[in-house]
Amino acid sequence: MTAALEVTLRTQGEIWFASREVGRLADTEPYFLNTALYYALGFASGRYVDRSFEPTYLDDTDAIADELYVTPATPSDSPGVGLANRITSTYNTSSDDYATINYSAQEDPDAKRNLPTYGRRRVLGHGNELTCYVVGRGFDTAELEELVPGYARLGKKRGKARIETEPLTVSEGSGEFDLGHPIGAYDTSLTPVGNLVTKRMRPTPLVMQASYEGSYLELEVLDPDGEDEENGGDDDGIRLPADATFLETKR
């Protein structure tokens, strides 16, 4: 038994993290990696105090990796929504180092210099909408919906996002297929056979589009009567590799 949900995250305030840094600009790109979503959705929890400074994604998700797969979230393609609000600000402040070395007046190397910490920050503001997909193996739709919270906190400042879910039907197929939604570069053992576009992100790159050969899952929206929508084509569903697992090739 396999169930799936389309999950919509609507930002309720500023969400900030440094996707890329160009000079003094720290830019938040409109992608939530599944390395963050597993924690934000409550599927995994890390250590409260981290003294090793080493990623623990594999250990934190070991118990649920085979059962729950979460794709990265990307801007919604619904008309009039998606990436609607980004805020750029300039800051000028003192250092936020945990410890400051106190030199004597005679030995201070910065005694005659004014060294403020300044730069620019571009963040996701209120009203942005991003979409990801949750696939549950061994769950029915109702059980999977119960696992997904109504709100999540994301980014360095724990910005708030409202969550809405929509049930999907899941069917299986085999052959050549086009990826229907971005996944992590290490989330499948399949090798792309063409049409590959990737995006460099930290800590894991994204596969934005690709063609694969192998088994796949096709996710489709239900109509109000609980039946598959008749969209008039075979390629209207979201296709993902059947073995899609968080950091599959790293396990």
Write the layout of secondary structure elements.
Blueprint: E1 2-11, E2 20-22, E3 25-27, H1 34-40, H2 57-61, E4 68-70, E5 74-75, E6 86-93, E7 117-124, E8 129-137, H3 141-147, E9 151-154, E10 159-178, E11 183-184, E12 194-199, E13 206-221, E14 238-241
Parallel strand pairs: 3-7
Antiparallel strand pairs: 1-8, 1-10, 2-3, 4-8, 5-8, 6-7, 9-10, 10-13, 11-13, 12-13, 13-14
Region (Disordered): 224-251
Organism: Halarchaeum nitratireducens
Protein name: Type I-D CRISPR-associated protein Cas5/Csc1
Written description of the protein model:
This protein has three helices and 14 strands. By secondary structure, the chain is mostly beta strands. The protein has one domain (8-89, 121-250): Alpha-Beta Plaits (2-Layer Sandwich), CATH 3.30.70. The strands form two sheets. Strands 1, 4, 5, 8, 9, 10, 11, 12, 13 and 14 form a ten-stranded antiparallel sheet that branches. The protein has a four-stranded mixed sheet with strand order 2-3-7-6, with no helix packed on it. The longest helix is centred in the first third of the chain and has 7 residues, at 34-40. The protein is globular, with a radius of gyration of 21 Å. The protein starts with a strand and ends in a 10-residue tail after the last strand.
